[in-house]
Amino acid sequence: MWSKSAFDRTVALLGLIVLSPLFAGVSALVRVTLGSPILFRQTRPGLHERPFTLYKFRTMRNATDSEGQPLPDSERLTTLGSLLRRTSIDELPQILNVIKGDMSIVGPRPLLMEYVPLYTPQQARRHQVRPGITGLVQVSGRNTLSWDEKFALDTWYAGHRSLGLDLRIIGRTFLCVLRGEGVSHGEHPTMPPFAGSRAGGGVGDLSAPVVDTRSRGDDSQVQP
Predict the structure, then answer these.
(1) C-alpha span between 32 and 116 (Å, rounded)
(2) Is there a contact between 183 and 143 (Cβ–Cβ < 8 Å)?
(3) pLDDT of 59 strictly over 90
(4) Strands (E), the chain
(5) CB 109 within 8 A of CB 218
(6) Which residues are bridge partners to 196 per DSSP?
(7) Maximum distance among all alpha carbons in the chain?
């Protein structure tokens, strides 16, 4: 019988070994361009909405305005940070989250803690599985999708996950990363904050949601 947790940890450990030179190189670049810390850490909701600390490579400067408020993302995002996001390399430290058991290789992206009270009961089903480094949203449109479209895909995955589906998503993720599409949302460098669903966030007709997957990779919104 397929064990998703064993599969996740095996893939994560192999990935950590193979990608260790890339980890070291990116860490050095972030240290030179942004200083310390190298990793961005933020509390996110995981399985059953339990909080955990998410890891990413830093992509933004800690720049503030005259009142001490952070500048817009577009002004804080560095050239290196833009490259890391476009190639999804900024997500690689989440391999450590997978090894720790906080995340899976494939699953709904872990969003922000403040979004949890805004979910409809249907949308909250995304927390019935561990969040993932990549997922159905990331190979189906990423930040070009609306929030309701993202949640529909997340809840569909939660009810239909399997080894075969995970392998298909992983395979398509490599293609999406090579294309580097879907990182921005219109004129926004990242996805605008979620403010609740007016339409209720139903699943809709998602009988074959991975057929049309022509781009992308994550929801990396609101990242210092």
Answers:
(1) 36
(2) yes
(3) yes
(4) 39-45, 51-57, 104-106, 132-134
(5) yes
(6) none
(7) 58
